[in-house]
Amino acid sequence: MNGKPVFTVPAKTVVNFESGFKEKLLCDGPTFSAGDNCCYSCSFCYVPAQMRKRRPWMAQHGVPAGAGHMDVVVRRADAVGTVRRQLLAHPEAERRVRKVIYGSPLVDVAGNMELVRETVEICKAILELTDWDIRLLSKSHLLPKVAQALHAADPAASYGHGHSYKARVVYGVSTGTLDDRLAKAFEQGTPLVSKRIESLRWLQDSGYRTFAMVCPSLPQADYDQFAHDMATALRYDRCEHVWAEVINVRGDSFTDTHAALVAGGFAEDAARLKVVSEDRQAWEDYARATFLAHAAVVPQGKLRFLQYVTNATRPWWEGQKQSSAVVLGHAPQKDNQQKDMQL
Prior knowledge:
3-stranded mixed β-sheet, 14 strands
């Protein structure tokens, strides 16, 4: 799949009813992941760190001992059927409470057309068996295919009805840069950023609910210009919310991203990243500069800037909550994202 060998493994769960992603305001607790390893290969991804904890399980299921995140795709068997079984076993009273489920913490929901079709079927099950809204995030340009398929499957005669599929799904694309070449250096296998933006604009122009995810963004030469350009390209006025985040320490994220930037010919970007990776205060300054630049251009009430803090930095970030800083624990690799790995 996308040039990688695929391993399909038995799974007890696809839906996580109480995920740590609630803390990030991406959902009200529930998430779904139809796989464990993505068809893309992003240097900043946190999944490699999770994989190291699962080597025994991977070996038992046929994944080569030396395989890393960038080498394989791991999918969960009968993901659609598992979602239906999980939802039907969940108390109906809880399924009928309006909330948001997020897909996907672990793998891209629209990495290719096969995954698009799987995501559509999962969404149909959620829309049928619950009153939840769905938030879908992708680094692909194929989310319009998901939207069109759900449109065709919607039993509601009028999209003006509050419970129609169109009213219950929010679509977002993720990118930390507007430069196609730069993104290609550290997001191997993903569609061009320009194509993602085209897909987001198509969704907006077609009346679908959208959000923006500016993540992860590198240290910038001009933070204000970066934030302004993002706002213009992603059309924040048409987004319900704007999430943003700098690159965090997750496994070898800094080392791998630096190497990818150097290999891609982006020496200045690599140099800026190296500085913040080697100096805690420089990393903090980079995070604050990114946040303040976004806060100046994102419409009031829409920004949700995700920031992991330490005891020393927490007071400053707590003081920025009124400006939409989302203060998170200091160890991202230890939060409830791990729950989404359970099978």
